[in-house]
Structure formats: structure tokens, C-alpha cells
Write a structure and sequence with these properties.
With 622 residues, this protein is α/β, with parallel strands linked by helices. 46% of the residues lie in helices and 13% in strands. Helix 13 packs parallel to helix 14 and helix 20 packs antiparallel against helix 22. It is globular and about 85 Å long.
Length: 622
């Protein structure tokens, strides 16, 4: 398709050229005439015969309009009008919990965001950026250079997308503080030492370094989940101190550093509510802040209310009002649930996001974002793109239009809503319920759990586990066969399901055969099933490795190899122990002699397995 653009195109011409190959058009002096006008107000696209007008206020609105226009360009005439609901609507990418995206992957994400109309990215880097004179900061963790981050910011600026550095200046610093060279900065194994001049000299270097590559004058300084603040070396040095006062002193000092460097800081707001809660849980309704605490919070600092869990609008409304009591309207951070398994749980993502966005619009929240954490580093970030689209569509309409969302995600990504949503099958075993805020992740639990110990076998007793994963593997196979786009999104989950249709209930079948002294069945499992299962684990590992290296830096993948190696070695040990038992070398298999207890102390099979931490899945030792 040939396009001819004229009018107010100076700010968007470069981006139009950059997207030409992706969207299949050419820009020149002939073709469909598109008149581009900057104006204040709604995003408007009109087509009459062969003449199209695009009116936009912000640069990002133009690129969304370009996509909307191309979706309907074959129609004789149309008019589209959208009212942006938020000043800022974007995503936070976790680049610290295992994986670090390549620059080319961040650029691809930015292109998707431009077409969707999302205008902000936070790059969450606990220690994954280079700080001069701190050689252990991000050592062997895939840390970004200044040049790499500058490339990302330059590319984002083309589309009117703001990149905000997102770092930690209190908690979540365990990856750095584990090094002997960094102990001088530590209070506890994961919290920096407050009221310490060496700490603030380090924090100033971190803030200056993290912000230098970016145009934005905003910086996220973290400060969440530092629940043991003041209870380590701080306690030894100063004795027990009021922890609100420690928090406020530290926040004021760090905010001053940010302000002195021309930056406007923001923090996660949970610590104030956690410290005021009797249970230490920040969502508890008893968390009420005293006026003296609120008065001590620096006025130049914005607050981010993060909540990926609740599914009722009223909870978000109530909690936003609590946050308003701290002196200003909060920024809201929801979540796209990819961090507990090999794909996205879109049931949880849609239910929480729809409730939260309704509350944000009702309460006048002007800035929202979707966080995408990588705690398990098993999913590809590209599997979260339907969640991007969900936030985007909420951002341009008072009420979500599901049919429009479905059309848009297919256009913006090349993958259908139904294909993305099929990843949710990894989180759902038929016949189980979930009463927890966190969704279950049976696929990861059943992959990593030990075949002889079966820590989650009571939860799946009597369920059609093999059948479920076989059906899911077939669904992924059909998607892969008909589409070449983002194949790795589905190839790795497909290989996972091929493993789980054998391994998912392996522990149950082993235990049953052992209890019944069915040595013929044990022999069949050890000599036939386990060798085939090992081959499938290798196939899964190879698929995951391809997925990883297509988007991520190499650092972090070694953890995956260790885990797959553990699965293979434990399968080998299982085979050997069965053989020893059958041959009479041992008189019993101790692990199979143990009773299988429900993990949650409830009736077996009632709740689906839900642990997302590998060490809590793979062994009873913690």
C-alpha cells in the first residue's frame, strides 16, 4: 500500500518510516492521501473516498491513529473518535529477576506499544545497569551499559514514549549485597543501611547513572517490601528506632538527592501501609497512617499503588482513597500475570485489570501502568502483549469494548485474542478451585516437583491431568502450525505440555504401583516411560533455550539449565531406585513409603498448586 502524508508530520515522519515494513506500506509522493493535523483534544480519524484526516494531540496518539486507520482503510468511509482516559498509560518491564531483554527486544516492544497507544515504559533494574567504580553491581547479571539504555530511549522518543528509570534505593538489593564488597551498604541481606553516609554516596551514584541515558526527568526509586528495615546492622548500630521515622528520614534524603539532580522521584507506597498493619500485610484494612507520618513524607515524591491481586472494584476504590490521604492522587500499577509459569494467566489479568481500571477512572487517577514481572523467568515477555492491549483499550474508552480489543490485538501483534488466551490453560486444571489472591500454577509445580516425593500429588489426585495437558498440547500445536509469528510464545508451552502429559501424574502412578506392590508397573515406568520422558524434557529445554536467546541476554539462562538438569537427574535417580527395589538391593523406597499430605492442609484436590518459587516446589527443604 502506498501512502502520501502531508500536514503536521515533522514529529512523526521518522516513526512512520520505521513502521513501514512491519505494517506493509510505502510512504512517498503518490498514494492514499493522509492529512495530519495537530490539535488539542480527542484523537480523530476520518475517511471520505480516498482522503483521510488524522487529528492528534500527543505524538503517541498519532501512532495509535495510524494503526486504527490501517485496520479500516479498505472501508469507503468512516470516522473514529477516541478520548484518552489517562495522561500516562504504560508498562513496567522487570529486567532484574532472571532475564534481561536485549535492546532489539525492547525496540520491538516499543513498536507494539506505539501502535497500541501506550506512552510510558519503566525499566526495572535492581542492579542490572553499570555503575562506575562498583564492579560487583550487576556482575554476571547482564547489566546494561549507558549506550544500550540510550539506544532504547532514542528509539522510544521517536514514538513519543517516555522511558523512566526504575531502580531500588532501599529493599530488593540482595543481588548486590550478597557480595562481600557491598556489605558496607547493607542493613539486612536485602535492605540498604539507612542513616549511613556511605549508603547515600552510593545511592547518589546509582541515581545519577540510572537517569543519565534518559530524557525523562522522572525516576522511580523503589522502596517497596523492605519489611526488615532497621532490624539488622542498623539495630546493632543505633538500637531499635521508630521504623516510620527511619523510613521518612531515608525517603527524604534520597528524594533530596533526586531533586538535586533535577529529577522528580516516585516510590512504591506499600511500606507505609505494611509498617502500620498489625500483620505486616499492606493490604490489611487496619493500616491507617498517623498525621505525623504523613507530614514527614516529602512533598516532591509521587506514590505508586501496586495491586495485581484483587478482583472487585470496591477494594481498589477504598485503597485509592487511603492513598489519597497521603496527600496526593496515586499512580496505579496493575499486573499482567506471566511471572508464575510458561505463559500468561489471562483470567487473572483480565479480572484484576478490569476492576482496577474502572476504579481508576472513577477516582480520577491520571497515570496507570501494567507491571510485568519475571520472577520465574519461564515466560517470554511477548506472551504478555494481550495484556498490553487490554491496558491500551481501557486507556482510550470509558468502557472496555471487547470486540474492538480482539480486532486491535490481532492487528497490532499478528496473534489473535483466542490464541493468546489459550495460554491460560497452563494455570487451570479442570475440577479445582482457587481461594487465594495468587492464581494457581499447576504446570510449573508439576514440572519441577520431585517424582518420588510428589509434594503436590495430593492436590491433583483423581483429576484428569494427563488428558488436560494432552489437549492443551494439541491446541498449541494448531496455533504453531498456522502462524509463524512469535512461534516461541507457544512452542515452549507446547513442549511443556508434552512433558506434563506423562510427568504430571507420574508421582501418583508411582505411589499407587508401589503401595500395591505392582512391580510389573514399576518396571514399565522405569524402563519405558522415564527414558521417553527424559527425551521430552530435553526437547522442552531446547525450546525454552531458543525462546530465551531470541529476546534475552544470555545471563540468567544458566538457572534454567540447572533446573532442567535437576529434573533429568531426579528422573534418572527414580529409575535407579525402582530398579534397586525390584532387584532386591533395597527393601523399600523411602520416599514412596511416605503418606501424601495435602499441601494446604485441606481436603485433597480442592485447591490447585500455586507456589511460584522453585525451591518451594522442588524439595521439602527450604
Amino acid at each position: 500500500m502506498k501512502l502520501k502524508l502531508f500536514g503536521d508530520i515533522g514529529h512523526v515522519q521518522k516513526g512512520v518510516d520505521m513502521l513501514a515494513d512491519r505494517l506493509g506500506y510505502e510512504v512517498g509522493n503518490v498514494g492514499l492521501s493522509i492529512h495530519v493535523q495537530k490539535h488539542e483534544g480527542d484523537l480523530i480519524i476520518k475517511k471520505n473516498a480516498n482522503d483521510i484526516t488524522i487529528q492528534y494531540e500527543e505524538i503517541i496518539h498519532f501512532y495509535r491513529a495510524l494503526g486504527l486507520m490501517l485496520e479500516r482503510v479498505s472501508e469507503e468511509e468512516f470516522e473514529i473518535r477516541e478520548t484518552p482516559q489517562f495522561k500516562t498509560n504504560g508498562v513496567m518491564l522487570d529486567l532484574s529477576r532472571g532475564l534481561v531483554l536485549k535492546v532489539k527486544a525492547i525496540k520491538e516492544i516499543l513498536e507494539h506499544m506505539a501502535l497500541m497507544g501506550l506512552n510510558m515504559v519503566m525499566l526495572y533494574t535492581e542492579d542490572t545497569y553499570v555503575i562506575e567504580d562498583e564492579p560487583y553491581f550487576g556482575y554476571m547479571r547482564g547489566r546494561y551499559t549507558q549506550e544500550e539504555l540510550r539506544q532504547c530511549d532514542d528509539y522510544a522518543a521517536i514514538f513519543g514514549i517516555e522511558i523512566i528509570p526504575c531502580i531500588q534505593t532501599l529493599g530488593h538489593m540482595e543481588q548486590f549485597l550478597k557480595w562481600p564488597d557491598a556489605k558496607k551498604y547493607g542493613d539486612t541481606p536485602n535492605v540498604l543501611l539507612a542513616d549511613n553516609e556511605e549508603t547515600y554516596a552510593f545511592i547518589e551514584k546509582a541515581i545519577q547513572t540510572a537517569s543519565a541515558p534518559f530524557r525523562s526527568n522522572r525516576i522511580h526509586i523503589g522502596m517497596d517490601e523492605a519489611n526488615n528495615l532497621g532490624l539488622g546492622r542498623y539495630l546493632d548500630i543505633h538500637g531499635f528506632q521508630n521504623r516510620f521515622e527511619i523510613m521518612n528520614r531515608h525517603l527524604n534524603r534520597v528524594s533530596e538527592i533526586a531533586e538535586e539532580n533535577g529529577l522528580k522521584p516516585m516510590i512504591w507506597s506499600d511500606m507505609y501501609f505494611a509498617l502500620s498493619s498489625k500483620t505486616g500485610m499492606w493490604y490489611e484494612s487496619d493500616g491507617v497512617l498517623e498525621d505525623s507520618v504523613i507530614e514527614g513524607i516529602p512533598k516532591n515524591t509521587d506514590f505508586i499503588y501496586w495491586d495485581y491481586y484483587h478482583e472487585n472494584e470496591s477494594f481498589y476504590v477504598d485503597f485509592k482513597r487511603k492513598q489519597k490521604a497521603m496527600g496526593k492522587l496515586p499512580i496505579f500499577a496493575g499486573g499482567i500475570w506471566i511471572w508464575t509459569s510458561y505463559g500468561a494467566d489471562y483470567d487473572k489479568t483480565f479480572s484484576t485489570t478490569n476492576a482496577a481500571m474502572a476504579a481508576c477512572k472513577k477516582e480520577g487517577v491520571s497515570e496507570v501502568m501494567a507491571t510485568i514481572w519475571a520472577n520465574a523467568a519461564e515466560s517470554s515477555f511477548s506472551s504478555s502483549l494481550l495484556g498490553f492491549q487490554l491496558f491500551a483499550e481501557h486507556g482510550y474508552a470509558e468502557e472496555l469494548d471487547m470486540e474492538k480489543l480482539k480486532r486491535r490485538v490481532k492487528f497490532c501483534t499478528g496473534i489473535s485474542y483466542e490464541e493468546f488466551y489459550s495460554l491460560t490453560k497452563l494455570y487451570k486444571l479442570p475440577g479445582q478451585e482457587n481461594q487465594f489472591l495468587e492464581p494457581p500454577n499447576p504446570a510449573s509445580c508439576l514440572l519441577w516437583q520431585d517424582p518420588l516425593m510428589g509434594l503436590y500429588d495430593a492436590e491433583i489426585q483423581g483429576l484428569q491431568v494427563a488428558e488436560h495437558f494432552e489437549e492443551t498440547a494439541e491446541a498449541f500445536t494448531k496455533i504453531i502450525e498456522k502462524s509463524k509469528l512469535h512461534r516461541h510464545i507457544f512452542e515452549t508451552p507446547k513442549a511443556l505440555c508434552d512433558v506434563l502429559k506423562n510427568k504430571g501424574d507420574l508421582g501418583i502412578r508411582l505411589k499407587t504401583a508401589y503401595d500395591e506392590n505392582n512391580k510389573a508397573e514399576l518396571h514399565k515406568i522405569s524402563e519405558t516411560e522415564i527414558p521417553e520422558l527424559v527425551k521430552k524434557v530435553y526437547i522442552l529445554r531446547d525450546a525454552h533455550r531458543r525462546q530465551w536467546h531470541s529476546w534475552n541476554k544470555a545471563f540468567g539462562y544458566e538457572i534454567c539449565d540447572v533446573r532442567y538438569g535437576g529434573v533429568i537427574m531426579r528422573l534418572d535417580s527414580t529409575k535407579e531406585r525402582i530398579q534397586d527395589y525390584i532387584s532386591g538391593k533395597i527393601d523399600k523406597i523411602e520416599e514412596l513409603s511416605e503418606e501424601r499430605l495435602p499441601y494446604y492442609g485441606e481436603e485433597p484436590s480442592k485447591y490447585a498448586p500455586r507456589w511460584m518459587v522453585y525451591k518451594q516446589i522442588s524439595t521439602a527443604y527450604r
